[in-house]
Amino acid sequence: MEIILLQDIERLGSKDDIVKVKDGYAQNYLIPQKKAIVATETAKKILAENIKQRAHKEARLKEAALEIAKKLENQKVIIGAKTSSSGKIFGSVNTIQITEAINKKGFEIDRKQVILSEDSIKEIGNYTAKIKLHKEVFVEIEFEVVAE
Length: 148
What we know:
Elements: E1 2-5, E2 18-20, H1 23-30, E3 36-38, H2 41-72, E4 76-81, E5 88-93, H3 95-104, E6 114-116, E7 121-123, E8 125-134, E9 137-147
Parallel strand pairs: 4-9
Antiparallel strand pairs: 1-2, 1-3, 5-7, 6-8, 8-9
């Protein structure tokens, strides 16, 4: 039986794939669990249209992410932190503080988009962080941690 997968299924295929499986597997497991639908001609046409629309929408999102990346590329962020006399930070600088500093410059970045190159930042200095704007668009931003 030919089916269209509605979600990724390990060792079978990914979402929107058309695959052949045994009738019992499709009728007793995949279709009742809403993991697949029967691949009729109508369902195949709907799938093709959905893929086409999703590709168009994805292209617009990527284009918008590239514009934001160009604006973010040469930005430098300064983050103030309480420090000891030796330059060690009390606590550490995390993605929340970096996100707040970037958002103060007029961007809308979620903290989950920020990827730190180091596990924890506990000293004053210059660092870089990657920002994932889209699944294919990353931008590196430099930030400096200074004593308050």
